Amino acid sequence: MWLFGFYVRSRQRIINWNVGLFHCVYFLNIFNCVY
To answer: Per-residue DSSP letters for 1-35?
Structure first.
């Protein structure tokens, strides 16, 4: 079961990273690139 939890967390992290990258490109804000 811990493996499933790890999979869900890794997917959420990838989604958050994609959203952050979009904000970085869209707003040209360096802080959004970092976070």
So the answer is: -HHHHHHHHHHHHHHHHHHHHHHHHHHT-HHHHH-
Q: What is the pTM of this model?
A: 0.34
Q: Are 23 and 29 in contact (CB under 8 A)?
A: yes
How far, in Å, CA of 17 to CA of 21, rounded?
Answer: 6
Question: What digits encode the pLDDT tens for the residues 1-35?
Answer: 667 777 777 777 766 666 666 665 656 555 555 54
